Amino acid sequence: MATLADVAARAGCSLATASRALTRSGAVSESMVRRVTKAAAELGYRVPASTSGANSRRRAVVGVLIPSITNPVFATSVSVIQNRMLVAGHRVLIALSNYDPAQEADAIATLLSERPTGLILTLCDPSAELPIAGDMPHVVLMNNRPTERFPAAVTADNHAAGFAITRHLIEHGHRAILFVSGSFAASDRARRRYDGYLAMMAQAGLAPLKALEVGFGDYDGLDLGEALRIAEPTAIIASNDLLALGVIGALRREGLTVPGDLSVAGFDGIAIGRMINPVLTTIEMPDVSMGAAAASLLLDIAENDAAPRHLEIPFSLRTGGTVRTI
């Protein structure tokens, strides 16, 4: 009598993958399902009754946690993930943390209640202890660097990105550069970008300015008056493009022009930054590639028992009209 091990050997996959394919209870592609089903039929293997029925008709679920759906960077990544997972026959559930570690834990718990076969997570701080009890399914971090608990990750080098945009401003003659950011406690990406700024300022022999942290989403009506009077910067780096647009609006309310009075640069490369006049100078982050790589890595780990690994996607500097030479 044929065993599941025989089926897995004929299909050229692991026991776990063969089981998921036959029961439709986990992340496995349709092509793998067909291959395993064919092998089972050729060997006369019958799926045990306890693993058939409702579970075999249940589509695999993949959970995705992001900080915000209003930021086009995350929206684009989620769209790409969903398209990739639909092709592989999986449902996608989306949860938001709103840049709040407490909400983050609740959101993950909600995703886990759906018994997902895998999670793609963008965490506030992946080094912090998640108060999640029990075993976790396969996890791929997106935009976060890997940790001991979550070694599978897809990132861009945010430290290098902060270094690069700061160097660009210094090359244009700027010496007093203010870094405006969302809360570092809620985004390790912003913190690493600021660390890159500090590293470049130190290399150039320049005194860095203390970062101005603002609440995420509090970009409308941003008041920079006091910070401008204290720091007297000639340029401002915002930790993301939406914040950079908020900075430009705040400067205009102060009666200042960009780049005539102050230069402004951001991170992300969202489309609206190309629509304003002048075009925003920014670091373009690979949101499409990030989502596609995270989805493919999760499927590879879940379906093929691939080892968790860290994939780093390159960024690029997009020069615009919001930075001038002084």
What proportion of the residues is helical, as a percent range? 40-55%
Q: In the residues, how many domains can be counted?
A: 3
Overall spatial form: elongated
* CATH architectural label of the largest domain: 3-Layer(aba) Sandwich
Pfam family, one: Peripla_BP_3
Protein name: LacI family transcriptional regulator
Keywords: DNA-binding, Transcription, Transcription regulation
GO molecular function: DNA-binding transcription factor activity; transcription cis-regulatory region binding
How would you characterize this protein structure?
By secondary structure, the chain is α/β, with parallel strands linked by helices. The chain folds into three domains: 53 residues, 434 Repressor (Amino-terminal Domain), CATH 1.10.260; 124 residues, Rossmann fold; 128 residues, Rossmann fold (3-Layer(aba) Sandwich). The protein has twelve helices and twelve strands. The strands form two sheets. A six-stranded parallel sheet has the order 2-1-3-4-5-11. A six-stranded mixed sheet has the order 7-6-8-9-10-12, sandwiched between helices. It is elongated.
Write a brief structural summary.
The protein is built from 12 helices and 12 strands. The longest helix has 18 residues.
